[in-house]
């Protein structure tokens, strides 16, 4: 029997699936490789937190690594993985050249999570009320990282389109791999909490993520003051990890606006509520909060940026509204209209089962990874080879200088 293939995943952080969708996404990838018989080593230079995923019993080997340190080179040499997966472009910038040096024949995969350059450009445009400018320094770094890798995982079709049409990246270097979800079965639907037994609105999101913090401010100042007048006695419960003082101080019992802090089980928490409210103003990728809401039959009211790329040609599981006055009106109507609410719920089931079912994507992705002819693939990406050549020279000497400095 052939030895199991070795994959090294280098994490920006140790994944925290209860804190963010990025953590959930990483665990889905780990599970996918485990199911296909891979030996996985997960390495990170970050410190663990109380919420880091517990890999014990999974067969995943954990490895703490040092940044700008030659010990990483000997670790690579000994492990000699066939695949190296970088968790976000910043990680590829830090370790990519060492991987290229020690394991030139390893397939290098970049998991973009969401396009950072798109998110930051939209954030800047939102803050300054200017046009979105995609051609930023972040974009130069992120696109260079995409070009240096053999395959980049893209979570949303909108981002695929931007990379191919605006940044002119060859589609063969990109792989569309959205969230990999369990299908929603009739059995699961039977166990959902019915309309009559649910109450209140909910928002959930990691507060370290700027689009989430911005959304909470919009809810507090622009949405909730009018919405609560339309629905007396109804609460808005805000959940999320890493709530700092600036978030906690928004809590106001008289306004029925509650900052609840971390939800240990996001789906269970969302399931008790009637509607997920998320007037997201900027961001990128695919939002884990909506996936969680659909998985438990909770309709969502959001903006076109919030729902971007998620529904394809299907109907949304709730409402998409960019005008904040109409957003309030329509959210209040949906809260009270059982038949519209049930239709929204059904739409969510279709979106998950037709667009995010793991069974639609898993085998195709593994087949691509296993059948990629690296030599031909890299020859087709000569610009990537040029970038790798130059990056190795520049980053290498910077990193070696830091290394030498650290030894003093």
Structure overview:
There is one protein chain. The protein is built from 17 helices and 13 strands. By secondary structure, it is of the alpha/beta class. It has two domains: 6-180 and 358-407, Rossmann fold (3-Layer(aba) Sandwich), CATH 3.40.50; 186-355, Glycogen Phosphorylase B (Rossmann fold, 3-Layer(aba) Sandwich), CATH 3.40.50. The strands form two sheets. The chain has a seven-stranded parallel β-sheet, sandwiched between helices. Strands 10-9-8-11-12-13 form a six-stranded parallel β-sheet, sandwiched between helices. β9 (236-239), α9 (245-248) and β10 (257-261) form a beta-alpha-beta unit. α3 (89-102) packs across α17 (382-407), α4 (116-128) packs antiparallel against α5 (137-148) and α5 packs across α17. The longest helix has 26 residues, at 382-407. The model has no long low-confidence stretch (mean pLDDT 95).
Keyword list:
408 residues, alpha/beta, Rossmann fold, 2 domains, 6-stranded parallel beta sheet, 14% strand
């Amino acid at each position: 029997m052939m030895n199991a293939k070795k994959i090294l995943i280098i994490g920006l952080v140790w994944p925290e699936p209860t804190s963010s969708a990025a953590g959930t996404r990483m665990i889905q990838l780990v599970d996918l490789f485990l199911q296909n018989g891979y030996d996985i080593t997960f390495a990170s230079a970050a410190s663990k937190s109380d919420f880091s995923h517990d890999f014990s019993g999974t067969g995943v080997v954990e490895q703490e690594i040092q940044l700008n340190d030659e010990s990483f080179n000997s670790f690579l040499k000994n492990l000699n993985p066939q695949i190296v997966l970088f968790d976000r472009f910043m990680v590829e910038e830090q370790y990519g050249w060492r991987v290229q040096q020690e394991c030139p024949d390893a397939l290098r995969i970049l998991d973009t999570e969401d396009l950072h350059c798109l998110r930051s450009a939209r954030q800047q445009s939102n803050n300054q009320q200017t046009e979105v400018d995609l051609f930023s320094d972040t974009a130069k770094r992120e696109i260079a990282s995409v070009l240096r890798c053999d395959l980049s995982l893209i979570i949303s079709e909108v981002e695929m389109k931007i990379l191919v049409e605006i940044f002119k990246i060859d589609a063969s270097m990109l792989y569309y791999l959205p969230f990999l979800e369990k299908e929603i079965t009739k059995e699961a639907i039977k166990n959902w909490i019915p309309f009559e037994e649910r109450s209140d609105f909910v928002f959930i999101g990691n507060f370290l993520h700027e689009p989430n913090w911005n959304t909470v401010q919009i809810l507090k100042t622009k949405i909730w003051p009018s919405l609560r007048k339309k629905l007396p006695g109804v609460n808005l419960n805000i959940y999320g990890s890493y709530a700092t003082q600036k978030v906690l101080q928004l809590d106001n019992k008289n306004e029925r606006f509650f900052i609840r802090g971390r939800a240990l089980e996001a789906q269970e928490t969302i399931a008790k509520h009637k509607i997920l409210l998320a007037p997201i103003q900027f961001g990128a990728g695919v939002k884990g909060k909506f996936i969680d809401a659909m998985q438990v039959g909770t309709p969502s009211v959001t903006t076109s940026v919030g729902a971007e790329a998620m529904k394809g040609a299907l109907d949304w599981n709730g409402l998409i509204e960019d005008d904040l006055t109409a957003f309030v009106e329509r959210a209040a109507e949906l809260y009270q209209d059982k038949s519209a609410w049930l239709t929204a719920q059904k739409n969510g089931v279709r979106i998950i089962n037709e667009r995010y079912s793991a069974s639609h994507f898993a085998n195709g992705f593994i087949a691509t990874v296993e059948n990629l002819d690296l030599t031909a693939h890299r020859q087709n990406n000569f610009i990537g080879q040029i970038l790798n050549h130059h990056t190795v020279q520049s980053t290498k000497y910077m990193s070696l200088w830091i290394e030498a400095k650290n030894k003093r």
